[in-house]
Amino acid sequence: MSYGVAKKTSPVAGTVAWISALVMFFPIAWMVLASFKTEVQAVQTPPLIIFKPTLINYRDIFAEASYLHFAANSVVIAVGATLLTLVIGVPAAFAMAFYPTNRTRGLLLWMLSTKMLPAVGVLVPIYLLCRDLDLLDSRTALIIINMMSNLPIAVWMLFTFFRDLPKDIIEASRIDGANLRQVLLHVLLPLVMPGIASTGLLGIILCWNEAFWSLNLTAHNAAPLPAFIASFSAPQGLFWAKLSAASVLAIAPILIFGWISQKQLVSGLTFGAVK
Amino acid sequence: MSATPMSAGGPAASGATAQIVKRPGGGVRTLPLLAPSVALLLIWMIVPLAMTLFFAFRRYNLLNPMIHGWAGINNFKYLFQDPALLHSLLVSVIIVVGVIVITIVLGSILSAVFSQPFAGQGVARVLMISPFFVMPTVSALVWKNLLLDPVNGLVAAIFRMVGLQPVAWFSVFPLASIMAILCWEWLPYAFLILFTSLQSMDEEQLEAARLDGASPVDIFLNIQLPHMSRAISVTIMIEMIFLLSVFAEIYVTTAGGPGYATTNLTFLIYQRALLAFNVGGASAAGVIAIVLANIVSAFLTRSVGKRLEI
């Protein structure tokens, strides 16, 4: 059907699209630029566009601001919470996708509804529980909370992946004489891995950028990167270059993750309603 | 959408295969698989909710142990007499409605523009969606300092260059400035979802419309926009969930001020609970937040839930 007519590129649409894309990306680009300036250059007016780049901010962020401490917290919290989410969510999504009953729909919608509970509505009890359990400023608390708030999204996303898999494959391999363990390991696992991987990626992105609980439940010991960056808000007009360098380091890994997985993110972020 | 095997046929069509797959061999019990998720989410939902409700009727201040006992409905009475509450609700609504309208309108137009073929489309799309992956504290601080600062910010420099007086955005237009940050964060999301939904559009239908002499605007309004309706409603739902609890952007830029100008309900509760240590009052406000969210979510799950394929 498509042979013959080659798609014509549209110059008007292209111009509008490129201008919008550059405008949207500009704040990030400007921040990257500022991260290679000295503090004096960063606040200079008119703003410098051409200058001799320096790595001093990056050095300072590592040396003085103990960036690695906060980055390690972010990694532990994001990876820990995401692994827990998958361990708990995969079986549930599998059960609902492969053995649906007439209660499955209601159950899924109920899970979605727990996501709509505003975090701030339970801020007080969670804060007090953490205080009483000695979990304030602990990574454990953030891992549990991130796990809980991402579980509904993860189950939905996994469900939409599993739903589209061939259902009779289990039955077929059982007839061929495979035992349940073999079926799980050699038949199902390779099939479900892509879905689990994308769900994990989305989970890590959401945890990495989570700010509400990070700001309210941590001080220093367990503070992840969003809280570290927020600490730059205090002295006005100071340390812009350092702020930029810290920000670049904080968003770079997730930006790259996001670029790689944008297709899969759509189905996760819309609870499978758009593919 | 048509690729989804279980959508159109519904339970009737899938029933036949489900019969066969169900209970292979000795019978599969799904309860142990489901139980952890369901139990955890139940606890996560009920325990803090019950505690919030309980504290909302208590006199409880973290700094003053002498204050205790039942408060009856006093926490709610004070709250409703407090002009800050009504104002914070208004701020929440302005943020949610304003950002959703702006991002959906711009997002749907841009997704139609991007669905035309042009050079470097892939790269442009990646640049376009990038802000969504920036953590909220970073985007807020970059906007507040590097871009909008009245003395050293880039916008101020441009203003001076063309002979205008620089504006202290976060003092003069505090709410609009925060909404600008939020739109920058959420436009990529709306764009990504709507653009993806346009990808499933029938190319021949568009071609036919073009041959019939339809203008791009006609095509957008009469063909592409209706096609995106389901994606739009899902986008509204997700944005509403996240925008109702905007916090970090306010925390690092205006801290709710000047006055109460940018204090939304989330920030009000944070102030009452963790800055004023008034657990009772904060919990009462929390109950209000939960009731409101439930009204919104009942409405949303009814309208959007029907559109979700299961």
Q: What's the helix-strand series of chain A?
A: HHHHHHHHHHHHH
CATH hierarchy: architecture of the largest domain in chain B? Orthogonal Bundle
Form type of chain B: globular
Secondary-structure element sequence of chain B? HHHHHHHHHHHHHHH
- Look at the structure and give the CATH class of the largest domain in chain B: Mainly Alpha
N→C terminal distance of chain B: 12 Å
CATH superfamily of the largest domain in chain B: MetI-like
What is the structural class of chain B?
mainly alpha
| Helix content bin of chain B | over 70%
**N-C termini distance of chain A:** 24 Å
Quaternary class: heterodimer
How many strand units of chain B? 0
Q: Which ranges of chain B are low-confidence, i.e. pLDDT below 50, for 5 or more consecutive residues?
A: 1-26
CATH topology call of the largest domain in chain B: MetI-like fold
Largest interface: A-B, 111 and 121 residues
Query: Which residues of chain A form runs of ≥5 with pLDDT under 50?
Result: 1-6
Report the biggest beta sheet of chain A as strand number plus sense, adding barrel if it closes.
Answer: none
Q: Let me know the CATH homologous superfamily of the largest domain in chain A.
A: MetI-like
Instruction: Write the CATH architecture name of the largest domain in chain A.
Output: Orthogonal Bundle
In CATH, what is the class of the largest domain in chain A?
Answer: Mainly Alpha
Q: What's the total count of β strands of chain A?
A: 0
